[in-house]
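Hey, does this match?
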Amino acid sequence: MDKFKFLFGSRKFWAALVGLAMVFVNHYLPNFPLSEEQILAVVLVLVSYILGTALEDGLSRMNIKK
């Protein structure tokens, strides 16, 4: 149960879900008012957000002593 609570509280999970929804909308609703290039741009922004958040989380957990 704690894994689901952690998953639904994750910013990376919600960003990935929004990106996946955009891909499905583009595929199943061809009359959607956004072009394929615009949807690709949104998905790329979400991917960069996910990678940036993962990098931030990973670096914050490292204990580097100088």
The chain has three helices and no strands. The chain has one domain: 2-60.
